[in-house]
Amino acid sequence: DIQMTQSPSSLSASVGDRVTITCRASQSISSYLNWYQQKPGKAPKLLIYAASSLQSGVPSRFSGSGSGTDFTLTISSLQPEDFATYYCQQSYSTALTFGPGTKVDIK
Amino acid sequence: QVQLQESGPGLVKPSETLSLTCTVSGGSISSYYWSWIRQPPGKGLEWIGYIYYSGSTNYNPSLKSRVTISVDTSKNQFSLKLSSVTAADTAVYYCARFTVAGTLGYWGQGTLVTVSS
């Protein structure tokens, strides 16, 4: 299995802050990396696919970058509705795996 | 707009088989892959497996011995069976549409299944 790690596990930030979340794969996964946002009691929502492509309807303040083993999700200016948990997921292997999540809460 | 809805018992006894169905509306189940994912309370996401509309499957190696995913194209549904459940299988179970690009773009709302006697 390809193991995914994320850092930090949680962070506190203020509205308007620039937020960066890191995801690392245990082996190279090229650009087969997706990001999801999950709010309490809701299903995850796809934000970014193929490491850097913005899913339709997702605000442009979200961006993704990286390839190989190291990836980042950036929120350029945090909005109140962005407080949530963020997960990365690799699809390089047919056995999909998710990162453990990063919880973004209000400072 | 594609919508997915999970259904099935919310309580299963230890050692029994968990059975869930996902009904797809707003689009055909054909020509797509369909997946199950679960999330224990307060924890992260775990992929269970996926099925192509034709019936070919791929399972999480850690669950493979206990998982069966099947599809019924006539009903626009796919199903999950997880055998020999324990308390560790207590989770919210989600169904989702899986693309060849590896994304899970459409999700059901999730259903909590508790394993308890």
Unreliable sequence segments of chain A: none
Q: What is the terminal separation of chain A in angstroms?
A: 36 Å
Oligomer: heterodimer
Q: Per DSSP, what share of the residues of chain B sits in E-state strands of 2 or more residues?
A: over 45%
Largest sheet of chain A: 7 strands, mixed
Which features would summarize this protein structure in a list?
heterodimer; A: mainly beta; four-stranded antiparallel beta sheet; B: 117 residues; mainly beta; seven-stranded mixed beta sheet
How is the secondary structure organized here?
The complex is a heterodimer of chains A (107) and B (117).
Chain A: E1 4-7, E2 10-13, E3 19-25, E4 33-38, E5 45-49, E6 53-54, E7 62-67, E8 70-75, E9 84-90, E10 97-98, E11 102-106
Parallel strand pairs in A: 2-11
Antiparallel strand pairs in A: 1-3, 3-8, 4-5, 4-9, 5-6, 7-8, 9-10, 9-11
Chain B: E1 3-7, E2 11-12, E3 18-25, E4 33-39, E5 46-52, E6 57-59, E7 67-72, E8 77-82, E9 91-98, E10 104-107, E11 111-115
Parallel strand pairs in B: 2-11
Antiparallel strand pairs in B: 1-3, 3-8, 4-5, 4-9, 5-6, 7-8, 9-10, 9-11
Provide a brief overview of the structure.
Chain A is mainly β. Chain A is 0% helix and 50% strand.
Explain what the structure shows.
The complex is a heterodimer of chains A (107) and B (117). Chain A is mainly beta and 107 residues long. Chain A has no helices and 11 strands. In chain A, a hairpin with a 6-residue loop joins β4 and β5 (45-49). The N and C termini of chain A lie far apart (36 Å). The mean pLDDT of chain A is 97. Chain B is mainly β. In chain B, the strands form 2 sheets. In chain B, strands 2, 4, 5, 6, 9, 10 and 11 form a 7-stranded mixed beta sheet that branches. In chain B, strands 1-3-8-7 form a 4-stranded antiparallel beta sheet, with no helix packed on it. Chain B is globular and about 40 Å long. Classes of the chains: A mainly beta (107), B mainly beta (117). The interface between A and B is medium-sized, with 26 and 21 residues.
